[in-house]
């Protein structure tokens, strides 16, 4: 008996592979099972493949009849996904499959992110590799790992045996858009260690929940509040209570939608809690895009291991001092963000403090300046700063044969021109074009809405149209 949720959707081959992939835990850093699944796929079909130590997989397929002398095309996507879940949802991303369901024109996952970014690329690539009736040039399907955490898979990929001249990167989220450039990024952190000691008083748990969250690149300009920064403002309003722990955000490339703090207050805790409630009302009024978030306080008398009052003040002020959100707009492309940063992860556990950021810019110079600014703030507060990873911008090419072909096929199928633009998000195209000389790249994809959040959804009709577009482009290459 076929118990697949998506079995009746078209194209069936694409949804079959997508649903298979959704049964495999594949959060960033946990992609071995997904990588091995791709290898098993290649072995079962007798296709040449390569799997490296990181888990990147390359699968080769020869040209269909009549395309033997055409330039090789790469179909590329990443195996990992951003794992977020709603508060109270019981889901273990290390072992549980996603709980898929259909809601009208949308594929969704109950209580969690969907992983359509970038599971749909993997599914489409496998559907091409699996079907001998599809006209296409020689194919190199490249599946990278850990794209969502700084792209170390693409950075570490050996490109010496790759022969592609065209790159179809299916890692964009708006259907009628061809992306031809992207921002570079730097993941960095600030760390500090503070001594803890037993502290008597009212141990209070502060919870900020229900913020919108979202992708820290494509949604950074939408005015969504950052839960980590909001919590720091709240702690200032409380008069800098002694900190026990902080827990905000799960990914550096997702705007945090919730944050929890445990603090110790004195005998005047009731007045402080009232002040915090008043602060929450004012904060909602100041966040027109996030007016429905909730703020709760639970208090009980007791003891907890807290850092000193001085260290608590210093760390809260440090959080508040680091800039957040959009820093500069692109002077040449109206309405497009050029430079931004996101405080994605905030932690204080047993005196160990960490803030993790993702900085983005389509200007290499501005990206370097922003990194220096964050480092200067860390130094001012006596904390350690380090860069975890970085990747270059993918610069726009004035001449692109692939772009010309894809625009022509798009007009034939849609009866209109596509939008051709660059994007304020990280794509692996810049890394891959550096590795494969002469590689001409375009990124595209079906409509994926509110990725990196529990509201993530994928348009069924858009996937079908995008699949037809992929087939049309392959036939035209």
Description:
The chain has 477 residues and is an alpha+beta fold. The protein folds into 2 domains: 12-183 and 394-476, Aminopeptidase (3-Layer(aba) Sandwich), CATH 3.40.630; 186-391, Alpha-Beta Plaits. The protein is 30% helix and 30% strand. Strands 9, 10, 11, 12, 13, 14, 15, 16 and 17 form a 9-stranded antiparallel sheet that branches. Strands 1-2-6-3-7-19 form a 6-stranded mixed sheet, with helices on one face. It has a 4-stranded antiparallel sheet with strand order 4-5-21-20. Helix 1 (12-22) packs across helix 3 and helix 5 (227-237) packs across helix 7. The longest helix has 18 residues, at 269-286. It is elongated and about 80 Å long. The protein starts with 11 loop residues before the first helix and ends with a helix. The model has no long low-confidence stretch (mean pLDDT 94).
Blueprint of the fold:
Layout: H1 12-22, H2 32-44, E1 48-51, E2 57-61, E3 73-78, E4 100-103, E5 106-109, H3 116-130, E6 139-144, H4 152-156, E7 166-169, E8 177-182, E9 184-193, E10 196-209, H5 227-237, E11 242-248, E12 259-265, H6 269-286, E13 294-307, H7 309-321, E14 325-329, E15 337-349, E16 352-361, H8 364-380, E17 384-391, H9 401-414, E18 419-423, H10 429-435, E19 440-443, E20 448-449, E21 457-459, H11 460-476
Parallel strand pairs: 3-6, 3-7, 7-19, 8-18
Antiparallel strand pairs: 1-2, 2-6, 4-5, 5-21, 9-16, 9-17, 10-12, 10-13, 11-12, 11-15, 14-15, 15-16, 20-21
Helix pairs in contact: 1-3, 5-6, 5-7, 9-11
Summed up:
The protein is an alpha+beta fold and 477 residues long. The protein has helices spanning 12-22, 32-44, 116-130, 152-156, 227-237, 269-286, 309-321, 364-380, 401-414, 429-435, 460-476; strands at residues 48-51, 57-61, 73-78, 100-103, 106-109, 139-144, 166-169, 177-182, 184-193, 196-209, 242-248, 259-265, 294-307, 325-329, 337-349, 352-361, 384-391, 419-423, 440-443, 448-449, 457-459.
